[in-house]
Each structure stands twice: as structure tokens, then as C-alpha cells.
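ASSEMBLY PREDICTION REQUEST
Request ID: AP-0331
Submitted by: J.K., bench scientist
Number of chains: three
Total residues: 1080
Priority: normal
Notes: Please return the full assembly, not individual chains.
Input sequences:
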Amino acid sequence: MIVADSAFTYTPGAADWVRILPELILLGAALIVLLADLATPAGRKGWLALIGLLGVAGSAIAAALLFANGDGQSAFFGMIAADKAALFADFVILLSVGLGLLFSPGYVERQGITQLGEYYALMLLAALGMMFMASATNLMIIFVGLEVLSLALYILSAYIMSRSRSREAGMKYFILSSFASGFLLYGMALTYGATGQTNLQAVRVFMAGNAFHSGTGFGPLLIAGLALMAVGFCFKVSAVPFQAWTPDVYVGAPTSVTAFMSVGTKVAAFLALARVFDVALLSVHATWMPVLWAVAVLTMIGGNIMAVTQRDVKRMLAYSSIANAGYMLIAVVTGTQDALAALLIYLAAYAAMNLGAFGVALAVERSDGTGATLDDFAGLARHRPALSAAMSIFLLSLAGVPPLVGFWGKFYVFQAAIIGGHLELAIIGVLTSVIGMFYYLRVVWAMYFQEPRAVGIPAVSTLSVEPPAPAAAPASASGGGAAVLVAEPAVVAAPAPQEAYQPPVLAPGAWLGLAFAVALTVVLGILPSGFVDLAIQAAHTILR
Amino acid sequence: MVAEYVPVLILMGLVFAFTVAAVLVTFVFGPKKPTPEKLAPYECGIQEIEAPQQRFPVKYLVTGMLFIIFDVEAASLIPLSILMRQLKMTGFVELIVFAVVLTVPFVYVWRKGAFTWE
Amino acid sequence: MSDVAWIVVAAVVKSAIAIGALLTIFAYMTLVERRVIARFQRRVGPNRAGPLGLLQPLADGMKMAFKEQIIPTKARRLIFVLSPAISVFVALIAFAVVPLGNTTTWGTSPVAIAWAPFIADLNVGVLYMLAISSLAVYGIVLGGWSSGNHYSLLGALRSAAQMVSYEVSIGLALAGVLMLSGTLSMVGIVHAQVAQGIWFILAQPLAFVLYAIAATAEVNRAPFDLPEAEQELVAGYLTEFSGLRWSLYQMAEYINMITVSSIAATLFFGGWTLGGLEGIPGMPFVWYTIKVAIFLFIFIWVRATLPRIRYDQLMKVGWQALLPLSIINLVFTGLAVALGWPWWASGLFGLGVLLIVAVVLYNRLRLRQAMERQSGEAVPLALPSSVRLVRIAPATASESGDGVVAAPAAPAESVTTS
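STATUS: Completed
Returned structure:
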């Protein structure tokens, strides 16, 4: 069949729809959540999370089937890839949104979030945008996916409307991120102007067929486009020096959202970055490499050093995510097939351990959003041994301790860097990992070897928002105690001073999510071969 | 096919000239005897209490956002409509997908009361 | 002279004719409207200036030009002065793609084609029309906002919300026609109707009804003339405008009426064709004019007949009735076109939907009347909470002036919105 005039003769068929089946299922789940929200009474919004999880599971099954049996062709005229790399990324994104959904019930109510139907729908839609961005093989689809995920995340970051820090997070993210989207789009426009193509494969063909000179022809235009796109992507993956938004947004946003977006956006942005720079524009590797090299070095050093000074664990994890972006950038800079496999391995490992770490932070967080500082973690092992053990596993994994999955991520990235001729990056990576070891292990040390400090008795109850402590409350008594006094006078007599720290009761979903994350971190760490093989297969398809 | 637009541009030019002339003419003819009362905002004889250029009711902004969403969707449907004859069932499936994605949020905002004007 | 120069000359001449004709039609539309409305109300209407009042528009125009131009101190001067011009500019340029006849048949040279009875046959004609007509809201909003007046601002906001609400339905309703025509070119759509042997009104009755309602709202005509509801808003966005710039707004409104009538005639009623009779030289223009004139008359008729609807009802009709119906129409038309069903399939479907809507509305009316009969007094209106009712004391029957027969005694009480 031929449509329109002869210039464009592509008609989408059933096969195209099958290739985006994971995305379609997730979209359907988001729509069903919206409709179900209308029918669900206020107290039972947890069911919506279940619907979302079912959608995520269905999407993951579809992705698995496509991974095993799909033809790996791209859908809709080379717009969206259904290759194994895209599906692998889909898995990681689905894992992160699934864990994010598991952490949410209980937590979101405790934080005083209303409008839960939209919350869950937006989580799913953000994941949808991430999947599109990770699968995109066309500059336009990359941008569309980016916008879908960003718009959803702007709202989600500001979702605790009663808390100014959350509103600040949403506003900051919105302004800075839309600015970066502008950069990215402008870079894409210039790249299109230079090459005449938005399709990445076509750009690659163009680059292969035309000599590149930085001073003449399409060269200057392409360099400008490369620079702007690099800025845009570096912002999205929160690489230094574009990281300034990250800590504030990660701390201010609801922790369940932070956990999800810290992983999901990275997967999407790194896949897109790899496709643009390592596939379409590989022939000008020498041109863009020094820039990304410098960014990677800055990110590794800056992220790790800034993380050292943090007392708030959520903020520390935010800086650690910056540092991890630096390690992933090593893979992009190297640009070989091994490196891309290492990138995928790192992303998957990072998803399991980082989501888990944020999940624990979420579990100890109080209903006013505080309570995740190092002091709060002090002596946590006494009261919450399971939670502390899980946190230790995630942090050791993040630090790169061998039998855990984080080690394999770092191992493959550094190995690929050394083979790919970037020994210096590997050395910097290892050295900065040592710095990382310090601040990760400090939390573990606090949990196990420090005395609990009586800095605030958090409210155990599920009260949505605590009324502020009156000014007349005695300053010697802790602020949290005063808050309890106001909220529930009868409770005051009960807790003895030494029972200082008691995190809120965790919802069963969150326990399940944490257990899942622990299992992934440990099992994949001990038996990495299967999943490494999958990643290598996946990376093989990205370079075609 | 830019040539097709040349007559449109010429029309625009002429219309522009006409409108500018019409606006300028208003300043040429006619008396000019301003008094403070005449130049005050028309408030049915009551003195103005506060300036009107303040924040608008949020309802209008909601309507504006809904318009953007649905009008963009309508604009996207137009090319599909044009090609419907050639695309046959493929096009219809896409239309259905589109219509569902359009309808579910429509139902949602309806039930949430965005269309109810109090 | 070269071809290019001739084409430019043709465009200039046609544009000038179009502007002149539209301004003349506008002037006489005001006269016709006043006369026709007067006839509806058993009055005579303006008949003093010239035979049958035919010089009335001229007199009006002169009067307007010599009125004082008031620019209130609170107004944003530049925007206040320019916004009527924006309205007129947009209204006039929208007419560029309306075909008054077929492409010329007396030659295939570019010059011959350039003299066809339309300014341009864009391949995106309908889209151009939609795009330009959606700009019309700028003139009104900017005018109302820059006046520095509460009434103006409210009128402008209402107008903006109203226009954007109905624009969505217009786009979706027209998409049904576009499925049948397969082209966006206005000339092409007329040709498609000739080729298929029908007017698209037959295949798309629902789309036409939706378009007719939405277009009336789009040009702010009664019963959707909320922005100018004089009982509530003095004159809406027009409050602070005087003289020629006031009449520029009127001009824009009437030209927009002509434009939407032209779209209706072209897309639904075969444009310049009339069952083969368009072959007679000169007749296409006549058919086109007759069709547009009928629509314009209906505009006036509706204004004389129907009361203005309430604002919450207006938004309700736009979003909760027209939009879903247009989506339904679009989906079914898509199915019919995709499966290659004949034209009467979507036609019957559209009529069926219209019938269902009519039955539902009629039933609601009957139910209401039954309740009224049972309780013996008027059932309270379903009003939004922001509207309060004021009871007005029964009016004493008074002698009506002018020898006109008084209407039957007014109802003992009437309700009004505060």
C-alpha cells in the first residue's frame, strides 16, 4: 500500500504494534488506573497500585517474549527500536517503576498525598516515556519520550503539595529541566540541519558517506549540535557540572518517586545518549570524546567528594547517583560494544541496589519528610535488624564490594574502559570508588556501631500531617516529642526515653519490594553470568 | 509549492494596509475633547474600586489547558482522516487507539468536574 | 509582462475585490439584519436613509468615522488601539481559501489559473481556515484585556473560553468530512463531492449539526453571544471601544459569519455546484452566493428566535455534548471509510444519533412539564451555585405604546439571574 505521494511510502502494520507491545500494555494500565480511580473510594487507593503492578508485570512479560522471540526490527518506519538493548532497558525501567509502585502504598498516605489515582497513573506514564526514550531510534521520538517522562516527573516531584520542599523540588526540576530540554532540542535541530536526518541509522549512514571536517561544510553545524545535545543529555543524567538540581529534587520529591526516577531517567537518558553518540555519531568519536571524557571525570570526582560531606542519607544517595552517572559515562565515552554491555549491566545493577537504598530511606522517613539523616540511622540495627541488613547490602553493593551486583557493574565498566583504551578513566573510577566506600560504609557503621541518639521521637501513627509544635513547647524536649504531644497527648507517657527511634510501620508492599531488591542484589551478584550474557546480547543489537 | 502561498501573502499585505489605514483614520477625523470623566473606565456610573487586571479565575486557565490538549489531538487526527481511505483498517485501528487515549482522560476530567462551571 | 507579474496582478486584483466585496457585504448585512429582525418583531426597521434604507450603512459608516475616539486612561494604549485591527485582519485573511467557483477552464497556463475565482487553492485549505479562525480570539482577548475595564475583561475571558471550547468540536466535526474527501483543499473537497455524487451533508448530518452549533458559538453569535451579554456585561469586550474601532469589531464578527457560512456551504453543500447546473457560465458564483445567503439568513433568524443561553450551559454544551458526539461521529465515519461502506452508512448513523439526542432532550422536556403540571408551579431551575435567583414583584399590566397589540399578560412572576 502506498500512502500520500511517492516520497513517503510506509504503512504501519500489525507487526509494528507488536513491537511496541510493552509500551502499549503500560499505557493501557495507566488509562485503566485513571478510570479505576473514579470508581475507587478514598481509603482504598492501594488497589490502584496493584493495577499498576499488574500492568508492569504484563509489560515485562511482553518484553520478555519479545526479547526471546522478537525479530529485533524497529517499528514505525525506524522510529522505535524493539531490539534487545531497548527491551533490556525496558526491563530495568519496569523494575524501577514496579519497585516504586511497591514502595508507594502506605508511604504516600503517610506523607499526606491526596489524588492518588493521578499519582499512580503519572508513575506509569513516566515509565512509559522512559521506555519510549530508551527505545527511540529517532531524534524526535527521543525528545517526545523525554517530554513524556519529564512532564510526569515534574508533577510527581511536587506531589506533596503541603510541603514547601516538595514544591521547591518540582519547580526547580521543571525550570532547569525544561531549560535543558530546550538545549537538547536545539542540538537535535542543528544535528538535523547538518545531516538532513532525524533517524539515527540514517544519520549514521550519512556520517559514513560524508567526510567530516570541523571547519567546513556541515562540520560546524554538527559540532554545535553535538555540544548542545551533550549539554542536554548531561543535564538529564545529572552529570557535573549540570548536577545542581539533583540533590534538591531528590530530597524534596516523595522518596518513592525519587527511587523510581533516580534509576528510570538514567536508564532512558543513557540509552538515548548511547544511541546518539555511540551509534549514530560514532564516526566523530574523536570530536565529542574529549568533552564527555572531561564530564565523566568531573562527575566521578565531584559527585563522590560532594557526597562525603552529606549528613542526610537521601542527599548522600542523590550525590551518589551523580557519582554513578560518572561511572556510566565511562562506558559511553569508551563506546565499544563491551562498554555498552557494561553500561547495561551497570544500569541493571544500579536499579536493584539504588532502589533498595531509597526504599530503606523511605522506610525510616517520618511523615514530615525528615528523619533520614545519619543520626537517625545511628543504632538502627537495634530496632530494625532486617531493615539495617538490607540497607547494608545495598550500600555495600553501591560501594562495589565483590559478591554483590554493584561490583560486577563496576568491574565490567572498568574492564571495558581498559580494553577500549581508557585506562586513565578506569584508574580515576577506581580511586573515586574508594572515596565512595567511605560515605557508604559510614552509614553502615552508624547503623551497627553507633548508639541511637534521642533526637526526636517520630510519630508512629499514620497521621497524615503533624500539626506544628507550638512555640511554647520546651526546647529541651525534642521537636518530634512535642509534635506527638500535640497530636496525641495520651501517647506521651508511654514511650520511655531510651526507646528513641521507631520508624513507622512498613506496608507489606514495601517489605516485598525491599526483599525483591535484596534478592536481586545478592543473587545477581553471586551468579552474574546469565544476566551478563543477556546484557552482552542486548549490547550486540544496539550497534547494528 | 510555496508559490501557492504568494496570493495569500498578497491578500495579507492588502488587508494589513487596510487595517492600518482604518486605525489611523480614526485619529484623523472626529473631535477630541477628552475630559477626565470621559476617559475613566466605564463602570455604569460607579467609581472603580480596584483595577481589573488581576489574576483570572483559575477555571479559565483549566479550560485553556484542556483546549490545548484536545485541540492538539484534533489537529493530529486531521492528517489521519485525510489518509483514511488509503490506510483502511490500519488507519481505523490507529484511530481507535487515538480515540481511546483521548476518551479516557476526557472521562476522567469530566468526572473530576473540570467541565462543570459553577 | 512575465507570467509572474500577471499572477501577482491577478492576486492583487482578486484580493482587492475580495476585501471590497466583504466590506460591502458587511455593511449591507447590518442593514439586512436590522430590517429582518424588525420584521420578526413586527417593526419596520431603518427605512429613512435612501430608498428602503439602502443608504443606511453609508450613513452609519460616516457617523462612525466622525465619532470621537476615546482611549481610557486605564487602557494599555498600543494594544487597545491595535486589537480591533487584529480582529479584522484575521477575519479578512481567512477568506483566502474560499472557492467561489471552479478552477478556470479556459486555459492551463499559470496566468489563466491565476484568475480562478478564489485567491488561493492551498492543499491545506481547511487547516489554514481552522488555524486562522483560531487566531480570532486574540483580537477579542487583547481588546478586552487592554481596556482596563472589568466588563471588558470578563467579556474577553468568557469569549476566549467559549471560542476555544468550541474550536475543538469544529476540528473534530470537520475531520469526518475530511475522511470522505481525502483532501484538505477546499476546491478538492467540492470536486470530491461531485465525484461521489452527493453533498457531504447527506453522509455527515451529525457533523454538520455539530459544526453549525460550534461555528455559531465560534463567531459569538446569538444564542451564544455571551461575551456581549448586555444585561450582565454592558457590551463585553466592546465596552470601551467607540467610533470606527468599534465598528471594526462588528466588521470582524460579520465577516467571520460569512466565512463560517462559506465553509459550511463548501464542505457540506457542494460549494459552487448544484447538480450539474454549475456548468452554465456565471452560475457557480450564483449558487455559492445563494447557499451562503441562506446560512446568513439562518444566523439572523436564530438570533431573532432563540434566547441567549447561560454561561455554564454554554460550556456544558461545548464540552459535554458536542465533543463526545463529534468523537463518536469520527470513529464511526472512520469505520465506514475503512471498510469501504457506501456513503449512506455514516449518513444513517448520524441521523440515528441525532434522533436519539432529540428523543432524549424531548423526554427531559416532557418530564419537566409533567412535574410542573403535578406540582402546579415552575420546577426550580438547575442553576450553578454561584447564580442566585431574585424574585421580582408581579408586574401590573400596562398599556403598550405605539399601537402594537400587547402580548398576552406576562407571567405573574419572572426569574432573573443576579
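REVIEWER COMMENTS: Chain B touches chain C through 74 residues (CB under 8 Å).
SIGN-OFF: pending second reviewer
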